[in-house]
Amino acid sequence: MSEVLINSFAARGQTLGDSIASLVDVLATRLLRPSVSRRRGAKRLTLVHFGDYAEAYWRFKNGGPETYFAQKYTMDFIASLVSNRVVDSVSSVSLSANLDGVTLPNGVHTLGVELYPEGQRSRHRQLVEAVRQTNPTHLIVTSPSIPLISWGVRSQIPVLPMFADSFRDSGIRTKAKSCLLALLLNSSAIEIVANHNLAASLDLRRIGVDPAKIVPFDWPALISPRSYHPKTAPSLSETFRLLYVGSLIESKGVGDAIRALSKLRKAGRNVQLTIIGQGELKRFEELSARETVQQHVLFLGARSHDEVILAMRNHHAVLVPSHWSYPEGLPMTLYEALCTRTPLVTSNHPMFALKIRDLDNALVFPERDIDAFAERIDRLMSSPDLYSGLSQASERAADGYLCPLKYDRLISAFLDPLERVELLKYSLSDYDYRLSALE
Fewer CB within 10 Å, N- or C-terminus of the chain? Predict the structure, then answer.
């Protein structure tokens, strides 16, 4: 590991000081061998996550919609921890923006530290200080922030790393960070390490985290394929409508989708692309113009979750072309497409492989391969039997998509030292995930 770490110090995009600080954090945490506090008394939970709890609270209060899967379920559960006196206080710390501290009418205290400001160094130290000010007795961290997790462990606070991340980028810096993260998470003071769904949890095992403490988790099945009829292929005279939902960044494959559309249009195929999401809009508008498909690409910006589900139902295929470099956990976009019975065309991202299978419940192409991407779309357009078969198969695929341990149960058990041990029955070592058949 030391050779990887030394090389990482010179890697582009990360300063020597940041690398040394992360290394010192992890080594200090492991050498001190801090224990987990079992103290009784007041419980003050601090939850560190992306998104703005206060903004969503007031949006819901004013009758506004959800913007992603299970958003209201998640927020209502967090508020219930206060109203049901499971904890004495909850602090929600956003990683998405700098936000002044405010206590909402439901009792949840909110604040924010923008962790990754554009064009600047990451602000892990400011984040640690903001969390320290909340005086937590329990800490949940949804980003693999080594400084924050290290601080929580050294402070003898029960820490629940609760990710939705994979660690597949092959760069030296990323490998070094993964080594450090695994070393930190294997501290005896961290009893549980959670990651969204099975594939991302297996990736934690791959980088060296003890499988006996890794627990896959999920959200409840709030939508179902049984609510929708299977689809049949559109007629050859009808425009074939493709849909992308997600961040507008290159590593999510947005540019690949536009280039594949261009190939299909040049081949005389009647196809158009709708893009829902926010990000580098100008970049992809310019790409559409260069590919001369600007009249056939519709950028809708952000949309509510209900609008996304309706759009999936009203389009002929959903595209999920993520690059391997993007740290997918297991995107709920896949589950939502399956539930709406809309055929999927996806990249071969490693996090998809356990749930998405080529010609079984989706069409899969090698990441970044524009020719193969266009060919898979063309094949779907050209084969009514394949189209209807994928739509029919989506019910079975959706039924096996979610993990048994749900978000609310995970957090509730983490807050109780006796129930916390019960979570280990969901670990990769103890629960029958039929790994031998999957790997």
Answer: C
Neighbours of 147 (CB within 10 A): 19
Percent of the chain with pLDDT over 70: 91
The angle formed by the CA atoms of residues 211, 26 and 124, to the nearest 5 degrees, is 105
Q: CA–CA separation, 284 vs 42, rounded Å? A: 50
Task: Output the CA torsion sign for 295, 297, 301, 305.
Answer: positive
Is residue 199 within 8 A of residue 401, CB to CB? The reply is no
Per-residue pLDDT tens digits for 314-348: 999 999 999 999 999 889 999 999 999 999 999 99
Beta-sheet strand order (sheet of 138-141): 99-103, 108-112, 89-94, 44-49, 138-141, 159-163, 193-196, 214-217
Q: Which two tokens stand for residue 162?
A: 């609760």
User: Smallest Cα–Cα separation from 366: which of 238, 203, 276, 256?
Assistant: 256
Specify the CATH architecture of the domain 225-399: 3-Layer(aba) Sandwich (3.40)
Residue pair 352/199 in contact by the 8 Å Cβ criterion: yes
How does 255-281 read in b/e, with b if 16+ C-beta sit within 10 Å? Answer: bbbbbbbbbbbeeebebbbbbbbeeee
* Three-class SS state of 401: coil
Whether 2-221+405-431 shares its CATH topology with 225-399 is answered: yes
Structure tokens at 371: 């020719």
- CATH code of the domain occupying 2-221+405-431: 3.40.50.2000
pTM: 0.90
C-alpha count within 13 angstroms, C-beta hemisphere, residue 132: 13
Domain segments of the chain: what residues?
A: 2-221+405-431, 225-399
Please name the amino acid found at residue 401.
Answer: Y
Q: How far is CA 287 from CA 32, 180, 252, 282, in A?
A: 52, 38, 15, 9
Q: Pick from 411, 418, 406, 404: which is nearest to 84 by CA?
A: 411
The DSSP 8-state label assigned to residue 66 in this structure reads: P
